[in-house]
What does this fold into?
Amino acid sequence: MDLLRFATAGSVDDGKSTLIGRLLYDSKSIFSDQLEGVERASREMGSEYTELSLLTDGLRAEREQGITIDVAYRYFATPVRKFIIADTPGHIQYTRNMVTGASTADLAIVLVDARKGLVEQSRRHAFLVSLLQVPHLVLAINKMDLVGYSQQVFEDIRREFTEFAAKLQIADLTFIPVSALHGDNVVDRSENMSWYEGASLLNHLENVYIASDRNLVDGRFPVQYVIRPHSSKFHDYRGYAGKIAGGVMRTGDEIIVLPSGLPSRISSIETADGPVDEAFAPMSVTVRLEDDIDISRGDMICRPHNQPRVMQDVDAMITWMGDKPMRPGAKLGIKHTTRRTRAFIKELQYELDVNTLHRDESATELKLNAIGRVRLRTTTPLLADEYLRNRETGGFILIDEDTNDTVGAGMILAS
Amino acid sequence: MNDAAESPRRILSQLEVLESEAIYIIREVVAEVERPAMMFSGGKDSIVMLHLARKAFAPVSVPFPILHVDTGHNFPEVLEFRDKVVAQNGLNLVVGSVQDAIDRGVVREEPNGSRNRIQTPVLLETAEKHGFNALLGGARRDEEKARAKERIFSFRDEFGQWDPKKQRPELWNLFNARVHLGESIRVFPLSNWTELDIWEYIAAEGIEVPSIYYAHEREVFERNGMLFAANDLCRPRAREKTFVASVRYRTVGDATLTAAVRSDADTVELVLEEVASTRITERGATRGDDRVSEAAMEDRKKEGYF
Ligand SMILES: Nc1nc2c(ncn2[C@@H]2O[C@H](COP(=O)(O)OP(=O)(O)OP(=O)(O)O)[C@@H](O)[C@H]2O)c(=O)[nH]1
Ligand SMILES: [Mg+2]
It folds into this structure.
């Protein structure tokens, strides 16, 4: 069985957690003791019905405030697929937690309250989903029960979002009208919206095709760890352990090691269960080469005729997640694939207004949750691809070297 | 787990994806952290985690010590199993003893006799003594609602505390392992595994687990709707009648608090069937300690518990 990772997104109170609760409940994926716990907590809160959002809002502070603060991960399976859900917070203050949940998703569900339509936060999240290149997006127009299940309301929001989405890079976009509270179009097709002819949300999640979302073209193997036994039994053994970040690597392939540029050939690809003929993302393997060359963590094994760029000047979109603003001149730690180095922010080219997608070139800093385009220079080169081409070799994080906090996420642009 | 290459569409099964992710996480810890250690309780999750660690570094042996916080409230089968695994794999075992900490006056026995809470200071003390600045743990997000919120690389302050409102962003699989002296990271390679994934993996890989995970006859008594083994650690009170039943354990924790479930599943296939159809979570079915309050786990985690 294969695995689909999906994340919720959208403005505060639009019903993300309730939708996840409903999905779990109607697909009979909730354990009886969990349900009892949620029923008890709902009663204690004075709610007339079971607050399904409590299935993911598990922290004390979340229950006191009635909002999601950090991502909750939930798991369920149908006979078709296994699912990993990241239920993320809608509140702007916690945008970095939404980004955390969405960064690994195959699909994002952006919720919109049918009564309110698109608000700034819906646009921000949809924009982040496209910036992160989450391959599939579902715009779920929720609380349809509160607008009389009106087709008109649905169509208006669909039109407005389609217009906005035209300016974003979204490969696959689906619209579904739902009521998370009552379950319309969540697991089963709704009887209240016979005008809607598409699939229910669960049906869509089960069938969306994700196998071609990975890059199987550009062979990329960032060396994570060098395995070198200090025993006589494995005297000459030297293996390069790591996870394939793109393409397909085969035994016998000619390769080149970056940044040294030294060529060799793959003598074997090993796992603890024995050798394999080929490896592709996201397999963790150990690659061995015919020649004894000096390779360490952070180096990249690739094909001679298909290499990543070796770059020290990096153009990237940044989502800033630090409490202190980012300003040009800042020196930061950077982690890209398995490589750790330092970066200097040379230039803030513009800040992006997520509502209008207007580029503010007069911006002098990026505050918490702001998005902008920067140019930075690293102390040692990155072996990188454009993020659009490969999420694994195109993304990096920025680390504040005083606090050690993760303060930014970057997506490399073609320059 | 080598079937993937045969699939022309090159799609990995969920177990293959989870295995690869866990191996990547474990390697990342060793590559980035100076002195990591792996928690090992002898329970199924830590056994699977250790199995993955062995795969991650093959043919080299596991390059870090194994840390067991010994509550002194053990199932003998589990302790025996631990020693066997350590001997077979030539592991370096470090033990933090709760009994010893009680004798030294570092912690005090709780009125209800449970050592679940007081094992936290012992864990922190042992980690500090050995200078461990990253601890790999077998906790899973599907176990409990506070765990559902935790990062894979989870930052702990110099008191070992978790602050759920101040977690570091964690993007893609770029993990930030940086800490200041005294601070540490807890790492959970099995974050995305469910109880069913664990058993499917145990079955697929033929991994041995302590015998108490399979159905056996045992003298038990009922307390708070759960079945507890009657023995020296856990004595029935006046009105609690003992009887013999076919049971197995779904989790292994402090033996005074961990309940058994009625079961006839005495093979891995039968356990798989049982886990696939169960309607109650493993902690709900077996842990007296989580029933104290709705936020019991969150509170313990804030103090430094796993
Ligand atoms: N009538 C109606 N109410 C809904 C629906 N979905 C959610 N709600 C209510 O909206 C409120 C907010 O729902 P949540 O699920 O907590 O919203 P959220 O999007 O998760 O909020 P954050 O995570 O804090 O951003 C709750 O009181 C829900 O009961 C719906 O389809 N119809
Ligand atoms: Mg929520």
Notes: The pocket of guanosine-5'-triphosphate (ligand 1) is lined by residues A 12-18, 53, 67-68, 89-91, 142-143, 145-146, 179-181 (CB under 6 Å). Chain B has two domains: 13-196+296-302, 210-291. Residues 143 and 283 of chain B are 7 Å apart (CA to CA).
